[in-house]
Amino acid sequence: MHALIVGAAGMVGRKLTDRIVRGAPLQGKAVDHLSLVDVVAPETPEGYSGTTDCLQADLSEAGTAEKLIAARPDVIFHLAAIVSGEAEKDFEKGYRINLDGSRALFEAIRHANLADGYRPRVVFASSIAVVGAPLPYPIPDEFHATPLTSYGTQKAICELLLSDYSRHGFFDGIGIRLPTICIRPGKPNAAASGFFSNILREPLVGQEAVLPVPETIRHWHTSPRSAVGFMLHAADIDLDEVGPRRNLSMPGVSATVGEQIEALRRVAGQKAVALIRREPDAMITKMCESWAAGFDATRARQLGFTSEDSFDAIIQAHIEDELEGAA
Amino acid sequence: MHALIVGAAGMVGRKLTDRIVRGAPLQGKAVDHLSLVDVVAPETPEGYSGTTDCLQADLSEAGTAEKLIAARPDVIFHLAAIVSGEAEKDFEKGYRINLDGSRALFEAIRHANLADGYRPRVVFASSIAVVGAPLPYPIPDEFHATPLTSYGTQKAICELLLSDYSRHGFFDGIGIRLPTICIRPGKPNAAASGFFSNILREPLVGQEAVLPVPETIRHWHTSPRSAVGFMLHAADIDLDEVGPRRNLSMPGVSATVGEQIEALRRVAGQKAVALIRREPDAMITKMCESWAAGFDATRARQLGFTSEDSFDAIIQAHIEDELEGAA
């Protein structure tokens, strides 16, 4: 079993790599060949018994996609993207990386399919950014994609391409609409949504964190662990059971910021909660109000995708996976 | 007022040209300059007092889009596409014409916008093919686009691009999801949906027509006259009122084939109905069963788009517009 991870140096890519290196099978088979690709050189994983190729490459450059599939990987995880803020500011770069890069990959596979019948599983990381306000709560599986960012537009277009290429039999694609990932490990970053993680991650290690929005803001979350679980399940799932609608809103936890804070209090006590400093920011609040508060995710649940069922469990996953079990 | 019609040689393009030539204003102003473009040379309209440019050109060829907007038309009607059957059979041609051609036009406008602030109204002809079975009846405005053809995929992608380019202010775009147009003038053609028109148009002039499906098949129709009306209204409408969701399912008439035939009987009598010959075709029937039976079109109606309210009216429009008032 040969797996290719495009976007391997990102947070989900690194965690997915780690799970595979620690023995997670794909389609019931051990992964003995792992190809890792990103625009920054992915690190060679330690302690892996199989073959690893690490490549620094940009999918949107001519010839890259063909090179990536030359060894005909069985499963391709396509996680590569520039993030929402950057795609919004740099219109051309966003379309080049997030749309043309994906299309180049899909086209390279199509040509290989026509040449020799190659037909890999393609797992595409999409996003809840494909929907745009005004939004119902919860958002049903059949709600339309009317994104309000170029990033969401590019993801929605890739979803459509993925379905069409799959319908034609060029590859077996499945798109995974990831909730906001919480608790993101690492340092606080400049993303507008960063506070959802900051207000939990920082207090858990005795650091202050800034909360720029009211506690009534409701949003849609899943843990990094569940996000990797979605990817692995998407690689395994029987696509006949999924049918032609290949892009699935994943399950998650819908919670208000207030509910996040109460979960933190239950898990780590008032001393942690006291480290949250309120600095209201009208612009961030306005952005958050336009985001998805939660999805039904009925189809994904029926198809066996699972997430945490409470914010307590999301915090617990972070403590186990990032803090060696101790908050 | 300078209008550009891309896809001017097609059925809707010719009828739109005709309405403009006969004096239909755009945004309250007389159209004194009309540019007609298609892959087959559009005919120069007779009796037009303004300036006409007719150009045979393929939007998907490098440099064409820039040439089309060099004179900075105020309103651009983008109707050019290869049809569903051809886009399905010739995957590369479908994407080149229906996706890359549209994107080339949008990109040319964006570059002109950045260069000199050019910001035209762009009216894009989309299609009910953006939705795919299983479908509710009626289909709500917020139903997702999960097309089951490459043509529908390409139209859905262009809708997303149109919204995003409009949101960035590169142009003022609006997408019009056309119902199946009935009664199509001209000769019977090979399209699977052709019978919806054939069974009315041919008997109205004393000719036989073949009905390949059961009378229970329900579908979504509008007249050529209403389709042109949609385009003209889309050129005029206040886009602030439309908001960021720029792609609208148009109103139409939902009717079973049986209801179509009863309307024919009321308008033209049993002698016309007797000319319909039943030749059941399982493949065409299966295709029709997966098509949209009808849309709510609530938003479009609220925004002033109007269609016929019965099949009798659709037949009457054909008699007036194509048969000089006499069936």
Could you give a short description of this structure?
Two copies of one chain form a homodimer. With 327 residues, chain A is of the alpha/beta class.
The H/E string of chain A reads: EHEEHEHHEHEEHEEHHEEHHEHHH
Largest sheet of chain A: 7 strands, parallel
Oligomeric category: homodimer
Shape of chain A: globular
The helical percent of chain A reads 40-55%
Indicate the radius of gyration of chain A in whole angstroms: 19 Å
In order across it, which strands form the biggest sheet of chain A? 3-2-1-4-5-6-10
Q: Spans of chain A of 5+ residues with little confidence (pLDDT < 50)?
A: none
Strand content of chain A: 15-25%
> What CATH first level of one domain in chain A would be assigned?
Alpha Beta
CATH fold description of one domain in chain A: Rossmann fold
Any idea what the CATH architecture of one domain in chain A is?
3-Layer(aba) Sandwich
CATH superfamily heading of one domain in chain A? NAD(P)-binding Rossmann-like Domain
Our measurement of the CA-to-CA distance between the termini of chain A, rounded to an integer number of angstroms, reads 38 Å
The number of strands of chain A is 12
Keywords (chains A, B): Carbohydrate metabolism, NADP
Protein name (chains A, B): NAD-dependent epimerase
Pfam families (chains A, B): Epimerase
InterPro entries (chains A, B): DenD, Epimerase_deHydtase, NAD(P)-bd_dom_sf
